[in-house]
Amino acid sequence: MKTLIRWLPGIDTLRRYEAARLPHDIFAGLVLATMLVPVGIAYAAASGVPGIHGLYATIVPLLAYALFGPSRIIVLGPDSALAAVILGVVAPLAGGDPVRAATLAALMALVSGTMLILAGLLRLGFVTELLSKPIRYGYMNGIALTVLISQLPKLLGFSIESAGPLRDLWAIFNAILDGKTNWIAFAVGLGTLTVILLLQNNKRVPGILIAVVGATIVVGALGLAARYGVKVLGPLPQGLPAFSIPWVSYGDLLPVLIGGSAIALVSFADTSVLSRTYAARLGDNVDPNQEMVGLGAANLATAFFQGFPISSSASRTPVAEAAGARTQLTSVVGALAIAFLLVLAPNLLQYLPNSALAAVVIAAAIGLIEIADLKRIYRIQRWEFWLTVLCFVGVAVLGAIPGIGLAIAVAIAEFLWDGWRPHSAVLGRRPRAGSLSLGCAPVLRQRRIFP
């Protein structure tokens, strides 16, 4: 029984569940579902797959992680940090075929989930420590820029053929000069983005829900889709995702394997940080290896039910916490609420404008950008700041997957360099209270004993 509980923490949570927590978890789950629906659809579109698959990639992972995940509050689902990586693989291989795009994305989830489970069973949770903060900030800022660029055409009401971040930016500029902008769609998207950004710091007000519902009502009531060509989501397929084994031709396997591997590393690096943060806050003890298994199981499950790679999110989990979540039952309630929506009211969001979905993704991408901590790194450890710049430029110029490969290479080189050079001692005065540090003892004046 102990072995079963170790690998299935959800069973232990169920055995110890307190009835007093039930109202809190149900309420938090319903609140969470109102955010997960527009976010899931938006991140699916940003990943190059039809919006319905964003809901499939929300329902299944929430249920799987509730059983396998060690954290009692972390919320999984489609993530803006992974959108650029998925799009980088899906867009050139799918050739505009939505079914093929969904299959490729599901296969990436299969690769990612398998790798994470194997790594967890082999107790390789320490591997993510190779990615130092400066390197993480570099590639995440690069991914944020890539996502922003990819969503600008949708915000402006037109489309382009993606050819890499810098070329896309040039294509967007030319399209604007050619008069392709749909100003009505842009106004709707800009209004949505403004509302989200104004309300994002208030955890008790569902800013995304308010913005998206408002945009949907305006477009539907005024007939903007028919009269002014504002592109909308359209009706969603009714029913729950069916079991399906994703497969593509052997010629597509290499980019899928590379993309899935990159996603495994990025998703676990982010999830482990968030998991440790909430574990410390709640007084829990989370095993990083079990976290790998839980995240891997969620990705594996969504791969077989028409989903795509998922991760944790620093935006969804605080919503659940603010709404009063106590356990993973919150995620289960949220998943069931979305499932009922697909079964009973699949046409509810048919007038949801694409520019509003782009606004949701852009707001999330802005949240990925880290500046304040980079200023601290620049002041204290200048050479690590330039590693950040290198990783950022790599993603922004080369694209998400080559850029992440560069970040991994830099991380390995940094690890080997730190292991080779002699440890240095630091002499200096004891710092004043409030001094800044990078996770080690801060100093005001210092000199290294070894060069």
Concise description?
The protein has 451 residues and is mainly α. The protein has helices at 2-7, 9-15, 22-46, 52-68, 80-94, 98-121, 133-156, 165-177, 183-199, 207-222, 224-228, 253-282, 288-303, 316-322, 329-344, 354-368, 372-380, 382-398, 400-420; strands at 76-77, 311-312. Mean pLDDT is 85; it is low at 420-428 and 431-451.
Task: Please tag this protein with its features.
single chain; about 450 residues; mainly alpha; two-stranded antiparallel ribbon; about 65% helix; globular; disordered C terminus
Explained architecture:
By secondary structure, the protein is mainly α. Helices cover 67% and strands 1% of the residues. The chain contains 19 helices and 2 strands. A two-stranded antiparallel ribbon has the order 1-2. Helix 3 packs across helix 15 (329-344). The radius of gyration is 22 Å and the shape is globular. The protein starts with a helix and ends in a 31-residue tail after the last helix. The model is unreliable at 420-428 and 431-451 (pLDDT under 50).
Stretches with pLDDT under 50, minimum 5 residues: 420-428, 431-451
Overall shape: globular
Tally the structural domains: 2
Strand order in the largest sheet: 1-2
Average predicted local confidence, pLDDT: 85
Q: Could you say which structural class the secondary elements and strand pairing correspond to? A: mainly alpha
Largest sheet: 2 strands, antiparallel
Order of helices and strands: HHHHEHHHHHHHHHEHHHHHH
Head-to-tail CA distance between termini: 55 Å
Figure out the total of helices: 19
Overall strand count: 2
Report strand %.
under 5%
